[in-house]
Amino acid sequence: MTVCRHRTPFVPAPKKLLIDFAHLTVVLGDRPVLRDLSLQIRRGEHLAILGANGSGKSSLIKTIFHELYPLAHTPGRRFEILGRELWDVGELHRKFGIVSPDLLGRLSYEVTARPVTARELVLSGFFSSIGLWPHHRVTAAQERRARAIMDFLSIRHLADRTHSAMSAGEQRRALIGRALVHDPEVLILDEPTNSLDPGAVREFHAVLRRLVRAGKSLILVTHHVSDIFPEIGRVVLMQGGRIVADGPKHKVLTSAALSRLFRRKLRLVRSKGNYDLVRR
């Protein structure tokens, strides 16, 4: 007699949420910069956080990186990253790569005292510095990793070029390289195209799309609708420290919603998966 055994189909365990925030309020000085904010981001998701200057976008990113902390005794508060609330900050920073205005500012400030090449800038990600210092000891494995990243970002030819001799777009690609040295699961880009000319913006977006194809999850923080390239599937709108809309970009991005967000009459223009705003 043949015994038939029932086989339960394999059901993969649900992925942990990357970000799981509920009812967070963050106060800077005596002013709330995030107000009762709730946000969940799945692993592998690509989203844009869109809002005007001062809307709380950068405060949200600093909260993710534990540079700011939410009030502890708020009803319903949840403050988890990859299923954990307590993190060693160094370990957390290896999970997320970031390119931000603060890093660009540090780069501009620190290189006034000494030149920093693209190679040094990429390698400095291993040491959480900007550029290399005499006490840093770079291993052969780190050199190989830096070369592979520069090849991927098409900046190998900039290896020995100093910061002052690079364009703004080249500097940002080198900073992306710095953010990638620990192979983070997620790359956060805070206002990445500020001060770039249209040609440099196109090149930068091409790099971001290459990162998506390579399996990196992207969180794009911007006040430029034109930064939302086709692979971005979800958009979060922020205003006054609150999330005012959150969902698929084709539903969230409307002329009416963006006019309210930026407090002016605007018309959304769509073309081949890209977006832009014009005044009405």
Characteristics of this structure?
disordered N terminus, Rossmann fold, 26% strand, three-stranded antiparallel β-sheet, alpha/beta, six-stranded mixed β-sheet, globular, 11 strands, 280 residues
Overview of the molecule:
- By secondary structure, this protein is an alpha/beta fold.
- The chain has a single domain (17-279), classed as Rossmann fold (3-Layer(aba) Sandwich), CATH 3.40.50.300.
- The protein is 30% helix and 26% strand.
- It has helices spanning 57-64, 89-95, 101-110, 118-123, 140-152, 168-180, 198-213, 249-252, 255-262, and strands at residues 17-28, 31-42, 47-50, 78-81, 96-99, 186-190, 217-222, 234-239, 242-248, 266-271, 274-279.
- α6 runs parallel beside α7 (198-213).
- It starts with 16 loop residues before the first strand and ends with a strand.
- Mean pLDDT is 90; it is low at 1-13.
Strand and helix map with partners:
Blueprint: E1 17-28, E2 31-42, E3 47-50, H1 57-64, E4 78-81, H2 89-95, E5 96-99, H3 101-110, H4 118-123, H5 140-152, H6 168-180, E6 186-190, H7 198-213, E7 217-222, E8 234-239, E9 242-248, H8 249-252, H9 255-262, E10 266-271, E11 274-279
Helix pairs in contact: 6-7
Order of strands in the sheet with the most strands?
5-6-7-3-8-9
> What proportion of the residues form beta strands (DSSP E)?
25-35%
Quaternary: single chain
The biggest sheet amounts to: 6 strands, mixed
Compute the CA-based radius of gyration: 21 Å
Q: What CATH architecture label applies?
A: 3-Layer(aba) Sandwich
Average pLDDT taken over every residue: 90
Q: What is the helix/strand order?
A: EEEHEHEHHHHEHEEEHHEE
Q: Level of helix content?
A: 25-40%
CATH class: Alpha Beta
Structural class by SSE content: alpha/beta
Poorly predicted ranges:
1-13
Overall shape: globular
Q: How widely separated are the two ends?
A: 79 Å
Under CATH, the homologous superfamily reads P-loop containing nucleotide triphosphate hydrolases
How many distinct domains? 1
Report the strand count. Answer: 11
Number of helices: 9
